[in-house]
Amino acid sequence: KKALYFLYIALFLTISLLPTLGMAVFGKSESLANEVRTEEVSPFLDDGSFNRTVLKEYAKYFSEHIAFRKQLVTAWDKLNAAFFRTSAQEKIILGSDGWLYFSPTLDDFMGRSLSNDELERCAQTLAAMQQACEKQGATFVFTIAPNKNSLYAEHMPSWIPAGHDSANAVKLRPYLERYGVNYVDLFALYADREETLYYRTDSHWTDRGAALAADALYAAFGIDTDYFSGPFSQGDGHRGDLYNMIYPAGTEKEPSEEYAPGFSFVTKRNPNGGEANRIEASNEQGSGRLLCWRDSFGNSLYPYLADRFESAMFVKSSDYDLSLIRRSGADVVLFELVERELPTLTDASVLLPDEER
Q1: Got the DSSP string for 158-172?
Q2: Which H or E run contains 106?
Q3: Ranges of H-type helices in 116-266
Q4: 175 pairs with which residues across the strands?
Q5: What's the alpha-carbon Rg for the chain, to the nearest Å?
Q6: Which of 253, 188, 262, 204 minimizes the C-alpha distance to 232?
Q7: 9-38, pLDDT tens digit by residue?
Q8: Are the CB atoms for 125 and 180 separated by under 8 Å?
Q9: Model-level pTM?
């Protein structure tokens, strides 16, 4: 009986110490998804005084760097999914049939919206941006990239009440019309398609989904395109951003498609898969100049938009410096914003050109 106790204690200590001891052998674990980790901990502050929170910081440091962290997180999340049908990750919603959703979209899904005054302020901000663009001779177009569960709600947990009819994106439309904002409605566009154009384990649209949005935006620019018709070839598979968050050591990929004809533009510097904060593209066969403020939905959208313009600049920033219009020589300005970020328009930082201030 004592031998079993000793074996149990030894096993417990081995499991408990293995991740920490593994750091000495295998080194620190890699970060999870877009995680920003604590890289340095010091017992002293910059002024030489003792750091009273050093133990708390060391605890955080070790929890973020222990060996086998990805494997342990993945195992824990799979156990929760298998036995409790729930996600252990705060930002992940576990849907049916392997679907994953991003929890910051819940306010929109449940219809929790801004007040009427806030919605009007959003429209006024966009109208001011449009007016500044038009005074500089540029066409302004605004569009909202829909949250995945706004389009594909059938796999959401049944216990979460749906109320998208009262969401910000819906209630904002009449204000956009009142202020004359040039708006491209992607919600109606995707609703008319029977095929699924978002990834099952990602929060974003597929490459074909991006092509459909691109065609609609080009139409608003007065340019006729049909990227959505393809042809598309089979890609190497897509590892979803939500899947990567909940199962960092997982190996599952979704089928993916790539626009087979390819694109003829070139970029000034490495776009890092579309993640770069600024992407500058040029195409000798194109015409016109595009300036686009975008978010992560622009990662797969920007190649389509860069393909027809002589020059195109894509900016990932929540500060909207409209002096870029003149500096870039843009005659078309696109503002793409994901649905869940619409509330940021209530206090958006918009820098008007000198003559507009």
Answers
A1: TTS---GGGSHHHHH
A2: helix 106-110
A3: 116-135, 148-151, 168-178, 186-191, 207-221, 241-246
A4: none
A5: 24
A6: 262
A7: 887 777 676 666 666 666 666 666 555 566
A8: no
A9: 0.86
